[in-house]
Design a protein that fits this description.
This protein is mainly α and 178 residues long. It has 9 helices and no strands. The termini are far apart. Helix 1 packs across helix 2. The chain is elongated and about 55 Å long.
Length: 178
C-alpha cells in the first residue's frame, strides 16, 4: 500500500521524536527525512505542536486497535492476565511510539491521550476485579495500572525478554484465583 505524503510525515515525525525527542527535532529535519517541503508539513499540521498531537493520536489509535482483543475477554481472570501481557505485546509492536511516549512524559498532549487510553482499560479492570469478588476493585485496578505503567517503561529501557517474562509470571501468579 502506497503511503500518502501526510502519512510519511507522521511516520517520520514519530521516528524522529522517538530518537531525538520532540524539542530536539526541528520541522526542517522532519521535512528533509520525509522528502517533503517544510511548507507541506505546515499545510497539513499548521504547527509543530499540531503535528505532535497528530502523531500521538495516531499512535493511540493503533494501540487501541491492537489491544481491543486483549481487553474484550469475558473471563475476568483471563482479562487480568491479558492486561498484564499488554506491556510486552504493545511495546514490541509499537516500539518507536512508546520510546516517544517515554520522552514526552511531561508533555500535556501525551499525558492527555495516555490518560484517555488508560481510563478505558481501567474501567474494564474494575469490572473484572468486581466479578472476582475483590473488596476494593478500584484500588486494585489502580495498583495494577501502576505496575503496568512501570512494566512498559522497564521493558522499553531494558528489552531483556527472559527477565521481563519472569516478572510478568510472578505478577500473574499473584492474581490467579485457582
Amino acid at each position: 500500500m502506497v503511503k500518502t505524503k501526510k502519512e510519511i510525515i507522521l511516520d517520520t515525525a514519530l521516528d524522529l521524536f522517538a530518537e531525538k525527542g520532540y524539542d530536539a527535532t526541528p520541522t526542517s529535519l522532519i521535512a528533509r527525512e520525509a522528502g517533503v517541503s517544510e511548507g507541506l508539513i505546515f499545510k497539513h499540521y499548521i504547527n509543530k505542536e499540531n503535528l505532535l498531537e497528530a502523531v500521538v493520536k495516531a499512535g493511540y489509535r493503533r494501540i487501541t486497535d491492537k489491544s481491543k482483543g486483549l481487553v474484550s475477554e469475558d473471563d475476568p481472570e483471563k482479562l487480568i492476565m491479558n492486561v498484564l501481557d499488554m506491556p510486552f505485546k504493545l511495546v514490541e509492536e509499537e516500539k518507536n511510539f512508546w520510546r516517544m511516549q517515554f520522552r514526552l512524559v511531561d508533555e500535556e498532549i501525551s499525558q492527555r491521550h495516555h490518560a484517555r487510553y488508560s481510563q478505558s482499560v481501567m474501567q474494564t479492570l474494575v469490572g473484572a476485579f468486581k466479578r472476582l469478588g475483590y473488596k476494593e476493585p478500584e484500588l486494585e485496578t489502580e495498583v495494577l495500572m501502576l505496575i503496568i505503567e512501570g512494566l512498559w517503561r522497564h521493558y522499553l529501557l531494558n528489552e531483556d525478554k527472559e527477565h521481563f517474562g519472569k516478572m510478568i509470571n510472578l505478577i500473574k501468579a499473584k492474581y490467579r484465583q485457582g
